Each structure stands twice: as C-alpha cells, then as structure tokens.
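How it folds:
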Amino acid sequence: MPGWRVFCGLTANNIPAMRPFLFYAAVLLLCCAACQQPSTTSGSDKLTVIKGVTLIDGNGGDPMAHVALVFRGDEITAILKEGKDSLPAGATIIDATGKTVMPTLINAHGHLGLLKDTTAVAQNYTPENIVRQLKQYAAYGVGAVLSLGTDQEAIWALRDSSRAGKVPGAVIYTAGYGFGVLNGGPPASFASKVFRPRTPEEAAAAMKQLAPHKPDYVKMWVDDFNGSMPKMTAAIYDTIIKCAHAHGLHVAAHVYYLEDARRLIDNGVDVIAHSIRDKEVSDTLVEAMRSKGVYYIPTLTLDQYSFAYATDSVPWINDPFFKNSLEPGVYEMLTSAAYKAKAKKDKDLQKKIYAFHTAMVNVRKMHAAGVKVCMGTDSGAQLARTQGYSEHLELELMVLAGLTPLQAITCATKNGAAMLHVENETGTLEPGKKASFIILDKNPADNIKNTHTIAQVWINGVQQAR
C-alpha cells in the first residue's frame, strides 16, 4: 500500500496548488447575483410545527398518522404524536391536516449545467444555469443531487456555497471531472473537462489534480457503448480505484456489462452507477455486492426513455407534471413526427427494450438480496432526461420492478444519504437531522404516483419556491 500512496502522489511534500482566487471570486459573485431574486421563504431560529400529517420518515417503517413535525432553523427537534404530546408554545403552526410528509429525494446520479433550451452541451455550463436547475430540482422535491463527472471549474465554489446554504434549491454533491476514454465515452460535447488517461501513470497524475478539490465521488466510464467506442482498460480503472482510495475518495462507475461490473467489484469499486443490462445478474455477483457494501443505482428511467418515444403511446407525454419540467422547445421536439420516426428506425431499438427489462429484473434481485439500492436517473445529461420529473418516474419504475412504495422511498432518501456519507445529517426525518421534507396532498404509500401531489418543499428548514 505505501507504494500505491507514492504512485498516487501522496507524499509528505505533496502540497496542493492553490486555485486562482479571482476565478472563484467571480463564481461567488455570480452565485450571489443568482440568489438576489428571492426564491425561498427564509428559515429562522423560531420553532415551526407542521401539524396534522401522516409521516413517512424514510426508514422503511409504516407511515405514522396524526403527528406533528417540529423544527428550528434547519434542524428537526421533535416528532410529536398529536393527542398525546403538546405542541410547543409560541411556535409558528402550519396546519397540514390530511397531508403526508416525507423526506426530500436524493438523486444519486444526475448532471448539472448542460441542458438549456434544445441543447445539451458544455457551453451551457454557467453558475446561473446550474442555480436555475437546482431550483427546478427543488420544486420537484429533490433536495440533493450528485452531479457525476461532467462538471467544470465553477462547480467547486458552487458546491461549497450550496452546502453552506447560500445557494437556493437542491444541495450540490459532485464528482467534478470524471475519468473517461480518449476517443471514447463520455461524449466530449458535454464533458469538456473529463480526464482521459492513456496509461495508469496518467490516471494517477489526474487523480493527484482532482483530489485537492475533495470531490464527493470519483466518476469513471467503463463502457464501449454497444461496441462503438474504445473501453477503459482494467489497468487504468484499477489505478483510478486504488489512487482514489489512497486519497480517501470513493469511486462510482458507469457500466453496462455484467463482466465489467464483476471485475470492478473485485477491484474495489464503491458504486455501480447504472443497471447491469446485458444479462441477468448471478447470485455470486449479487452476494459480492452485498457483502462488500457496493451501492447500486439502476437509472431505470434512462433505459425507458431510450425507447419510449418509438412507441405509439408515451404515458407521460401530456402530463403537466412532466411537461412543466422540460426545457423550452423540448416538448415540441419530443412530439414531432421526425423525432418519433427517428426513434422507430433506431437499429438498436430491440436491444434497448431488452436492456430495460433486464434492468428491471436485476434491480428486483439486488434489492431482495439486500444490496444497497439508491435512486438515480442520469437526468440532465440529455434533453429527454428531464430534471425533476425523472426522479418521480424512477420511483414508479422501482415499484413496477417489484419494490413496495415505501422501499422505493427508502432507496431515494435514506440509502442516498448513506451513499453520500451524510446519513447522520439527512435522508430520514428524525430529531437532530435536517428539516428537508416534502408535504404531499396524498400518501405515496398508497400509490407511488402520489409523490406528484406536492404542496410544499422545504430544504434545510427553508421553504422552496414552486
């Protein structure tokens, strides 16, 4: 192990170079400008009580009826049973009788800053665009998003400001600059800062550049995209994993094939960031993931979106909850005859349908065996993968795959927080944790689509604009 630490750039004299101060100052000024127009109701140190609700706390147990959620500032102070416990005197009371409260969702696989109007490109990556997307996520009840590997330099100051509560909307977690392949994935059009090492030595040098930023994860792409691109070699991804771990960082891998997933798990990867889709997972692989604590993010919506527009009926296409989440002009694009014709002519259409059904089988097997499943969507990477709606569709697909609504909610809340190593702060609604919750008109334990019935969203004790 000491040899790996030296190879990965961890020596006593390894002092990270300081980033340009003026650049970060400019980003912070842009953040402040984006926050000038109020989009939230400010929190305070005064006690606030949400009374009369059914509570889904995110731990997986049955909903608790007739309770009151009490918080001060950004922290939950009590869960009270109405009729038994007295409400605190002098508190601000919000009567939500008949409604349901659950934790805000955690998108464990998203992308920020790329979508704008009918384009998904690196040129759209600005602090203003990122903040706009964070607000949209929040309006849909997404309280945190892990942006996996396509970020640019502005993300670091934004991430720190977001975590300090100085940026509105969903809280940012980021992998910063991911690790891809020269002339391979991910597409350079929206991943302009991705490292593309050709040798293990270049991978180690890149990790040495990335590590001082303290990314929340390290992202790498291990996929040949249906044989159309070169795939990252085992020597390089083994180096990335070892160097990341030497720096105290965790690694998430984009995968498609079962054999790649098996090798990555053997080599110590921490997260499989997409479904395994070429074949059903074996009991041996499932047990390896469970015993090693590897997280699994199925991104089922990605696979359904990949073929849905070739069908004669897209179930969500005229749902206002979906339409309101789209970038300007995208609805017209998705409903055009040309778009549908192109989708129907896709030479890989049947393979994509097979991949989706395989993904559904595999997430059911993973969850049933005790693998830690999280909710992620890859939203924000392509125009059809809309930010906000996709997270609710992912819950629906998890339930369709065989999870109960409460199990799917736990994947999207408690498990996501654990994957981000913030389970002591957020992910469940308990005293001492963050006041990040959604107030719903209907109970999603009865029907998972009831997560659409959003009345209010609060993130870290601050009500979000909708």
About this structure: The chain has two domains: 38-103+428-466, 105-426. DSSP finds 16 helices and 19 strands in the chain. Confidence is low (pLDDT under 50) at residues 11-26, 34-40. The first strand starts at residue 40 and ends at 41.
